[in-house]
Amino acid sequence: MRTSKIRLALGALASLAAGVATAQTPLTYSNNGSNVTLYGDVDYYLNYMRSSSGSRSISLQDGAYLRTRLGLRGDKDLGDGYTGKFVLEQGLNDTSGAAADATRVFDRQLWAGLATPAGEFRVGRQNTAIFYRGGYIDFTARTLGSVVNAFGVPSRYDADLAYLSPRMAGFLFETHYSLQGSAVNHTTNQGVYQLALDYEKGPYRAGYAGIAGKAPIGATVDRTVSYNSWYANYSYGGGKIYLVQIRTNNNSTTAGAPGTLNNGGSPLNNVGNSLVAGTDAGANTYYNISQISADYYVNPKVRIGGLYGRIRDSSGTGKNANGWAIGSFWDIFRDTTLYALADSLSNDPNAGFRPSGSAGLTKTFTDAADVNGQRIRGAHVGFVYKF
């Protein structure tokens, strides 16, 4: 039944695409102040990875730089400075044609909003403030090759109420609160909170974005799980220099095949399927993640970059790692980018981090012997087409 609903929704989107092709603006339908746009992207790449255990992986993957997706977004001018808005977005695995999440019709986003002179209000399933700020973090836009991304980033939550302020004197404020647990049992006193502040002036940008989720009252592991990110970047003319510092306890062990991977779980839950359970002992371990990155435009269409990052377990359990990446992006056509990346992620004996792209790798190392305490190196070549 769920699969049929997903196919029906995607079929409707395809029919809309055929209809809007005859509209005045490609893939956009406009009428009496209303605009509806069909958009998306396709991202394929060849992935080669080698673990210091000796194991290798060669595969065709989806979503190194952008998760393949199909979506609709719209807005309507309501007058007097007010605009109604909506977004519907479904992730796809372009190597198999499957939905990224077979339990949902629109797994990435489904929200409605109202933009006003005092700011924008949104309600529904939304991307997090941290997710939106990926392009402020490093030259990969916090995707494949990023040490920050190997840790896992909270991406989106259900039943999310959000407010985004207008930018004033260079500052923009954003706050979210997810109500997804409130209807089940209000006595658990749970929720997922977000707060972000961004400052931009000339070539400088700096800001903070944080997420916190409470464990239920009386939980076995009675800790608030949080992810706090401080970032800054500077545009020096030929490119950008990026710095980021993260403090979080959003990581734990996870099942491997065979064995247990020392890292990879997410007590905060990174895709909004549930609240903090309060049973994951990983919430007792805190990490500091530091990363520096820079890029340079060889010409207006070709950008190269590199980064180095460290994950440090500040709780003394030795789950430390470090990594680097170099890469290039070539805007070969107006809507098509070719990319090539090389990266390395080295785990200390007690750590078990793995590389990840914008979409999680469907074919990756799952045997604990190939991950825990191992160095994983990769080479990746692909393209992303946006429409």
Summarize the structure.
The chain has three helices and 21 strands. It has 387 residues and is mostly beta strands. A hairpin with a 2-residue loop joins strand 4 and strand 5 (82-93).
Give start-end ranges of low-pLDDT stretches.
Answer: 16-25
Based on DSSP secondary structure assignment, what is the total number of beta strands? 21
Strand neighbour order, sheet with most strands: 2-4-5-7-8-9-10-11-12-13-14-17-18-19-20-21
Share of helix, binned: under 10%
Structural class: mainly beta
Name of the CATH first level = Mainly Beta
Distance between the termini: 30 Å
Radius of gyration: 21 Å
Strand content: over 45%
Query: Count of DSSP helices?
Result: 3
Write down the domain tally: 1
Largest sheet: 16 strands, antiparallel, barrel
Q: Determine the CATH superfamily.
A: Porin
Structure in words:
The longest helix has 19 residues, at 2-20. A hairpin with a 4-residue loop joins strand 5 and strand 6. The chain has one domain (28-386): Porin (Beta Barrel). It is globular. It has helices at 2-20, 129-132, 147-151; strands at 28-31, 34-51, 56-62, 69-79, 82-93, 98-99, 109-116, 119-127, 156-164, 171-178, 192-201, 204-213, 225-235, 240-248, 252-255, 260-265, 287-299, 302-313, 321-333, 336-347, 375-386. The protein has 387 residues and is mostly beta strands. The model is unreliable at 16-25 (pLDDT under 50). The chain has a 16-stranded antiparallel beta barrel with strand order 2-4-5-7-8-9-10-11-12-13-14-17-18-19-20-21. A two-stranded antiparallel ribbon has the order 15-16.
